[in-house]
Amino acid sequence: NSGAVCLLRPLLLDVVPGVRQTAALALGRLADYDVDLADAVVKAGILPQLICLLPEENRYYKKTAAFVLRAIAKHSPQLAQAVVHCGALEALVICLEDFDPGVKEGASWAFGYIARHNPELSQAVVDAGAVPLLVLCIQEPEIALKRIAASTLSDISKHSPELAQTVVDAGAIAHLAQMILNPDAKLKRQVLSALSQIAKHSVDLAELVVEAEIFPVVLTCLKDSDEYVKKNGATLIREIAKHTPELSQLIVNSGGVAAVIDCIGSSRGTVRLPGIMTLGYVAAHSENLSMAVIVSKGIPSLCACLIEEHEDHIKAAAAWALGQIGRHTAEHARHVAVANVLPTLLNIYVDTLSSEDLKAKASIFKALKSILQKCTHLPALEPLLHEAPPNIMKHIIGQFSKVLPHDSKARRLFVTTGGLKKVQEIKAEPGSLLQEYINTINNCYPEEIVR
């Protein structure tokens, strides 16, 4: 408000290097503060001035100039575009080629803040020739430089298969894969994130990541003391598992499912989420893979998530995963049912608190429905008769109408436990599917028992 930005601008051209550097630092700190101040720095026409002398300046000025560019670019795509528009990318590439690791680090950071916003800005970073230099940066000995270069490669890769392919073509995967066992937790976070962002786009990219022999090494990350390393490790496994049965089978063969289940058991909150999703993706592919999740004791872990977690989206993910396990055959559904999952799912569905998140409610309904449509284990279904709302009751009654005509022992039990009595109390629309199911059940018994 006092006009400091305009006063600082001429100091960027001062004859004393220390003055130029300190003026740039002041502008960077102002721009870093909030979007309006960053906008004011851009509108004052400072960027061209900041960049024009950059190649000739000393390393301290280069670091500070990169900080200013990053401070402006971080706030919005529009401000990042303004940084690109004034020719900053070319200047930053020169900084990436600098001998000083601090200058390279500053430039990498600025590229990351530009690339993270959208595919167009990320493409501009690629077109400037930054990717091969960033891959060289992850091979440097300085840990801080490795971290920020890996983070920037992650930000470039996340937008599209084409951008991820550019990172792959520069030879990034092999170097990233070697750093999975690095003792530095912050570096591991960024490395796992970058590999996840590459693997998520397509089967081919996921296979390239797998071919870098990340299994079983990556499973050690699921036991890491750092929560983000655990989460990013599970995310990488999830992004590979989702593509094909073959990739999921590879994860199973390397002991990945058991490791993910242990990770879910030892974590809480959002750290569990990628692991939960991994189990769902593996189970969704085939009956055998679903059985692998069952044998590894995945169902009790997922059921624990339903009970212990408070956030609707985590409960919904656990419900979805259980639905993927139980939807294949009656045998799969029975494993889910005997673990007492159905009453838990039903309670969450009926619970009015859960109804705030309609998407979560829909996921839980879908999971219940897919398990119920395969479940022929009547002892697990019967308690639900007394609590289920009409839209779920229909599926439960449907299963009874399939099993009872062929099972005399189940028919007897159905009378003695009060199930048949409950069916008589249900009000169904004449001619509806539910009424048909009820008629089928009633036809299994003599008329006087029904009465």
From TrEMBL:
GO biological processes: epithelial cilium movement involved in extracellular fluid movement; filopodium assembly; neuron projection extension; sperm axoneme assembly
GO cellular component, one term: microtubule cytoskeleton
Domain of life, per lineage: Eukaryota
The name this protein goes by in its record: SPAG6 protein
Organism name: Notiomystis cincta
GO molecular function, a single term: microtubule binding
Coiled-coil intervals, chain numbering: none
UniProt xrefs under PANTHER family: SPERM-ASSOCIATED ANTIGEN 6 (PTHR23314:SF0), SPERM-ASSOCIATED ANTIGEN 6 ARMADILLO REPEAT-CONTAINING (PTHR23314)
